[in-house]
Amino acid sequence: MEAEELFQRYGYNTFLSNRLPLDRELPETRHYRCLEREYPKDLPTISVVLIYLDEALSIIKRAIYSIINRTPAHLLRDIILVDDNSSNGDLKEPLNAFVSLIHVTRPGLVKQVRHSSQLGLSQSRISGWKVASGDVVAILDAHIEVNKGW
């Protein structure tokens, strides 16, 4: 029953997501030509903006972990979480506690923007972009996992 209720609430298999490791191995999905290339180490820094509205906490945590663990540390300037006025209580204090844990080893890496009313996707993108400090800004949905070499 719990799995069905979670699916109805979020629209995806949250029951499974809550049981998967936050830092899990993903299969290699890059084209073989991409694997053969040498990429420069001195690429521009990046800010990653994750936009969400009432996502499951495990989904957001996994997205954050994937970005931190699969992006070269010297390139990742910040991760900006934009909450478009979620009502899900897990996205308040439990998410704040998770961000605080990240800040123990990477102070200031994750920034949070919380809208006091629902502004929509376009305004959420702009809100995140305004806070970003990297040379390049990637704006992603929060229900993603980046892979190696993304």
Automatic annotation (TrEMBL):
Q: What biological process terms from GO does the record include?
A: protein O-linked glycosylation
- One GO cellular component term noted in the UniProt record for this chain: Golgi apparatus
Q: Which UniProt keywords apply?
A: Disulfide bond
For molecular function, the Gene Ontology terms on record are:
polypeptide N-acetylgalactosaminyltransferase activity
Query: What InterPro entries does the annotation carry?
Result: Glyco_trans_2-like, Nucleotide-diphossugar_trans
Q: Where is the Glycosyltransferase 2-like domain?
A: 47-150
What is this protein called in UniProt?
Answer: Glycosyltransferase 2-like domain-containing protein
